[in-house]
């Protein structure tokens, strides 16, 4: 998306889908937040609605996977183990749904975090396999990041290929014409008044116009099909005007011994090249808008020290685990200089915790038994034993991320008014140019 007209087009297409109550599209982050009734609409239908407008779409989240985890199974995964693992997981309290993909060796579990958690799932899977199975959190690159990376590479390749053809077009029309020897060669007639330079520019410009620039034709056709006009329409109109006028000039020069004129092939190819460069830089800039959120999520430590208490209230064992495996009511040990792995409250010890990442106050806050701590904050001195109360999507960091994403989706009244005006910008521009052409 390049302008507010694009966001209006996508919003209108989404709101036209039966079952959609509300749709908000953010231009800066290129994300859409949709409130819909799953009985009448599905995620695939929403993706198709966006793609019909000329844009690509990938699913980030359905809102139903807040408490869903994917586990990878290693080892000898026999077919008989599939039903055993599924039945064993279903026997756990708080498990809502289980999906097993034997090809990818992936187990997806939806659960209630106040009753169970991922560590229980791993223990059940490994015990079911009698030592033949090992389970861990499934490492899967986010679809959004992959799509963004592919889009950046695609625009970069398109821009480089456009330069391969555009630079010779520019040189033959703007530079070589002032070099006597080369100028004489380029102005040599091929057929009637058609010169070698014009023929070369036509050959070099055509791939840029119809192969490299085909994305603008596709986008403009889909936009016009939905009764809207976006920037792709303007690009297609401008480049087509320059290209087909130049082609008309070539045909007249080739069929007439006295016709004189000028071609504008360099305008078409250079315009497409500069637009591709602008889109490439725009995508790079938009990618930085989500860096703050990514850095915020990285504040949480990768590992945590899990404590086991005995009947007398003493620590009987401790082990290091992945911080994503922390469950409610787990007791975590936080050493001096370490990060608090989860939201919770102190049950033993006293220390000072740096909470500047939340409050902005650099002065450490004293913590003792009964005080609340926030995941991602830094323990300054002393050892703390913390009982986890909010994990996963319920943690303070996750809530902050969702608030930031919601704020990016929200629009001020002035912005909504500007969006309504921009809806008519492209049609008005086309109408004015048409009127000017008729007047001339």
UniProtKB/TrEMBL annotation:
Gene Ontology molecular function: ATP binding; metal ion binding; P-type monovalent copper transporter activity
EC numbers: 7.2.2.8
CDD domains: HMA (cd00371)
Gene3D superfamilies given in the database record: 3.30.70.100, Calcium-transporting ATPase, cytoplasmic transduction domain A (2.70.150.10)
GO CC field: membrane
Annotated compartments: Membrane
Record-annotated membrane-spanning stretches: 158-179, 199-217, 229-248
PROSITE patterns noted in UniProt: HMA_2
Domain of life where this protein originates: Eukaryota
UniProt keyword annotation of Oxidoreductase present: no
InterPro entries: ATPase_P-typ_transduc_dom_A_sf, ATPase_P-type_domA, HMA_dom, HMA_dom_sf
Key word GTP-binding present: no
Keyword list, A-Z: ATP-binding, Membrane, Metal-binding, Nucleotide-binding, Transmembrane, Transmembrane helix, Transport
SUPFAM superfamilies: Calcium ATPase, transduction domain A (SSF81653), HMA, heavy metal-associated domain (SSF55008)
Enzyme class: translocase
Residue span, HMA domain: 1-58, 67-133
Protein name as annotated: P-type Cu(+) transporter
Organism encoding this protein: Ensete ventricosum
């Amino acid at each position: 998306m390049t302008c507010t007209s694009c966001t209006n087009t996508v919003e209108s297409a989404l709101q036209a889908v039966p079952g959609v109550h509300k749709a908000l599209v953010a231009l800066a982050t290129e994300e859409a937040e949709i409130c819909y009734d799953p009985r009448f609409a599905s995620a695939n239908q929403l993706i198709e609605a966006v793609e019909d407008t000329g844009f690509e779409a990938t699913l980030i989240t359905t809102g139903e996977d807040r408490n869903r985890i994917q586990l990878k199974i290693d080892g000898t995964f026999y077919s008989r183990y599939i039903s055993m693992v599924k039945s064993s997981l279903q026997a756990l309290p708080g498990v809502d749904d289980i999906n097993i993909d034997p090809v990818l060796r992936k187990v997806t579990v939806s659960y209630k975090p106040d009753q169970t958690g991922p560590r229980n799932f791993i223990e059940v899977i490994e015990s079911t396999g009698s030592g033949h199975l090992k389970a861990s959190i499934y490492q899967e690159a986010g679809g959004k990041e992959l799509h963004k990376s592919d889009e950046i590479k695609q625009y970069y390749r398109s821009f480089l290929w456009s330069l391969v053809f555009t630079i010779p077009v520019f040189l033959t029309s703007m530079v070589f014409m002032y070099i006597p020897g080369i100028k004489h060669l380029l102005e040599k007639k091929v057929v009637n008044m058609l010169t070698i330079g014009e023929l070369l520019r036509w050959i070099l410009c055509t791939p840029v116009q119809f192969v490299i620039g085909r994305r603008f034709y596709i986008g403009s056709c889909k936009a016009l099909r939905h009764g809207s006009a976006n920037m792709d329409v303007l690009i297609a109109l401008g480049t087509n005007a320059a290209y087909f006028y130049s082609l008309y000039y070539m045909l007249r020069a080739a069929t007439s011994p006295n016709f004189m004129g000028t071609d504008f092939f360099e305008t078409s190819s250079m315009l497409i090249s500069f637009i591709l460069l602008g889109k490439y830089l725009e995508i790079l800039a938009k990618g930085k808008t989500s860096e703050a959120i990514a850095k915020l999520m990285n504040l949480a430590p990768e590992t945590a020290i899990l404590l086991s208490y005995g009947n007398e209230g003493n620590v009987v064992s401790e082990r290091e685990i992945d911080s994503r495996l922390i469950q409610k009511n787990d007791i975590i040990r936080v050493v001096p200089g370490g990060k608090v792995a989860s939201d919770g409250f102190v049950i033993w010890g006293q220390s000072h915790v740096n909470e500047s990442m939340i409050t902005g106050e650099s002065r450490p806050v004293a913590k003792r038994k009964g005080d609340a701590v926030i995941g991602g904050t830094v323990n300054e001195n002393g050892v703390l034993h913390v009982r986890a109360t909010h994990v996963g999507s319920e943690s303070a960091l996750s809530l902050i991320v969702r608030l930031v994403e919601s704020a990016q989706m929200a629009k001020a009244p002035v912005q909504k008014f500007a969006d309504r005006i921009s809806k008519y910008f492209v049609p008005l521009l086309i109408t004015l140019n048409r009127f000017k052409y008729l007047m001339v």
